[in-house]
Input
Amino acid sequence: MTMPALPSLNLSAYDLGIQVSVLFLVILASLWLARLAKQRLDQQGADQPFRNALVLSRRDFLRLFTPPLAFILTLASRPLIAPWADTTLLALAQTLLLSLAIVQFVFYVLRRILRPSTLLSSLEHVVAWLVWGMVALHLTGYLPSLIAALDGIGVTVGKNHISLYTTLLGLLTLSLTMLVALWGARSIETRFIERTALQTNLKVALAKILRTALLVVAILIALPVIGIDITVLSVFGGALGVGLGLGLQKLAANYVSGFTLLLDQSIRIGDMVTVGPNYGEIRQIATRYTVLRATDGSESIIPNDTLITSTVINHTLANRNNRISLPIQVAYDTDLDRARTLLLAAARQDRVATQPQPQVLIKGFGESGIDLELVFWIGDPEEGLGLLKSNIYWAVWESFKREGIQIPYPQRVVTLQNAG
Output
């Protein structure tokens, strides 16, 4: 197989200098125009046109708009200098700038969908070089030969010929359709679902259903494009059903339980619940598990199936006010009216609710003293109780010590009888 020869640019020093100078000026002008546009948009209010560009950072704005501006300026400059110099280098730069604009746009979408990371940044550079390499192969005439070589490496299965080229093309098509689906789901979620007056659970459920539906549609669109018959999915669906019945029952149950929790509103994001030995705030309801954050900051990963099949105590289902009781014992000779006044004064903390009002109850008469109970309500149980209880106990201790009220030690009365 003979490879085509590289086209000769036949550039003189004069032509090369003119085109390099024009490219340099085009890049500077594109950067200046992009910065000027960003400054103007930042000065405008949110109700002005192009308000969506205001949410872009300065770096993302320059990376998105500088290559298209450079492409437009290069395209406009070619007819202007054509009478005096060759424009072959500008044509090559024009194609590379267009490919750079596409790469920047695709990875901007990826950064909006995924979390920015070092891996994503490295992948961006790799893809950019691959795209530029493909463009260079196309311009030099080597691309058809490369495609033919890749297509020759493969096997024939039935009526379908599976080669390295079709595999790579299929992966690329599937990735692009899934990328568009995820971007569409994120856009609908941020612009419609989050702005509607729905409960948090319903918003999360709608977002997950929408994302799943769009991904399925993307796969159904991509498979025929790469030559795979959709009827094959019926066989795959039967195999998946057998797999679910044999070995994936628990996984499937967790996924179904996740959607059930999001839709039935018995457990909502932000609720304070007790699941077995775990107590904390529901921070996330994923499709497979639920994240429970304890008051000490630790997080427990609980399978959704556990929340459906076991007893869950929801402390904030109907009312966020939680009743807190502090047991306190005083001596039998204590003035109980005075002790109650001091206990109610100690309960005057910022987090203690005024309605219902704090109360002091007599729980019983113990062996060493009178058992009292200070009862109050709080509306923010997710903030924890350790510091609040400590502050109230400190106030009780100081006021009792000041007023001479004793917290008794354990006492026993022993009677000795004369053996005679």
Summary: The chain is about 55% helix and 15% strand. The first strand starts at residue 154 and ends at 157.
